[in-house]
Inverse folding.
């Protein structure tokens, strides 16, 4: 995930991860940060405020690291854009910070997770696109 999205997600500022693609995978996920930071997003006052609540700014965001873990429990399609909120295929409405912190275009997918936990010690790792396996040994 590109920063600051990864950090905001693992810190529970965002409930969902949004993707353009669906996955049938369910189970454990590691949250990996790319080496790229979206500077324009980091310059947004609202994003700066959310990051600073947790002691982060664009200069100290971890890059190229596994920063947390979670459990993927569902993958839902965005079916309707209702101006400031969206409707998911199960009828759930996403609004507020969750809406602000995702890409909820109609046709995209919302990954619902549980048990998010930020690691105490981040793990340097080279990432890949899509889902990939990492050997902790």
């Amino acid at each position: 995930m590109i920063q600051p999205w990864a950090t905001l997600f693992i810190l529970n500022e965002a409930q969902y991860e949004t993707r353009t693609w669906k996955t049938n995978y369910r189970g454990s996920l590691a949250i990996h940060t790319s080496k790229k930071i979206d500077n324009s997003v980091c310059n947004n006052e609202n994003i700066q405020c959310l990051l600073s609540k947790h002691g982060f700014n664009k200069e100290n965001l971890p890059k190229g690291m596994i920063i947390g873990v979670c459990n993927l429990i569902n993958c839902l399609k965005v079916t309707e854009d209702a101006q400031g909120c969206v409707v998911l295929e199960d009828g759930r409405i996403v609004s507020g910070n969750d809406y602000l912190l995702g890409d909820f275009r109609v046709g995209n997918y919302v990954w619902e997770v549980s048990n998010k936990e930020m690691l105490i010690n981040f793990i340097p790792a080279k990432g890949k696109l899509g889902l990939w396996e990492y050997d902790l040994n």
Notes: The mean pLDDT is 92. Residues 12 and 29 are 15 Å apart (CA to CA).
